[in-house]
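Subject: sequence -> structure tokens, single chain

Hey, anyone have a minute? Need the predicted structure for the following. Not urgent.
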Amino acid sequence: MISYIIRRIAYGVLILIGVNLFTFVLFFTVNTPDDMARMNIGGKRVSPDAIEKWKVERGYDKPLLWNASAPGADKLTNTIFFDRSVQLFAFDFGSSDSGRDIGYEIRQRVGPSIAVAVPTFLLGLFVVIVFSLLLVFFRNTYLEFWGFAIAVFMMAISSLFYILIGQFLFSKLLKLVPISGFAGGTDLIVFLALPVLIGIVSRLGAEALFYRTMFLEEIGRDYVRTARAKGLSETAVLFRHVLRNALLPILTSTVAVLPLLFLGALIMESFFGIPGLGSYTIDAINAQDFAIVRSMVFVGSLLYIIGLILTDISYTVADPRIRLS
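Reply:
Had a minute. Here:
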């Protein structure tokens, strides 16, 4: 087990290096430091002296990957890539291109993102599993037919549509919740009720169909027929046997949600004015702020790799028959 975890961590570090390098090359293929300076200073009619001053202040006056004029190891370290990307592995996020401390912004925005993502993830997972089990419980009936039809209909609708309809219905028409914004304390529930509800509804259709297929596959196995032969009720069979044996694919399918616990739903946070990491990333992309973008890509990649490792470890908890060497 220990050797397996060490091996996976080593693979994860290699993946992080590759993602970091790819993000760097991709960004500077689209933009040059001069373009970034013009955008941050304000327009195309900027003097060359102002552009050069902006680049010097933020370290963009150096070569990208290789400094041929520098001596020794400085050929690698005295570059934009080392200053702006390699330092991420020491969790030194530095400053944004606008001059703000990225680490401070991340610490301030983690809370709102978690406040939205955690209840959306946990409640959504519970609702999806229960709905899927009900479809299986009432299989070959009209309830399953209409439940399946509703799930397909919900899957075909964009999450953006749910956001617009939810804001119009619950905020504009019924005036039950604010249309956007964020607040702490007891007001937190009021501001998060609609985003969480929409987050659950938008994922219900696709995931319910996936879990339904998975549960139907399990319910046809020999151990289910044995459980029924012993006199167990259909409810006991579903919850005590089928659900337990389906935990492995459930764990696998939910691992991708781990980065969202911190990065948040990009569109959701932007439309509801939630000051989380998702809206922070969207604003950085619109402003073409490379420092913020590469920091958020690094954080997301790191969390996803951690999620994969935790998922592999949790397999042994969900199914003791599995042993990782």
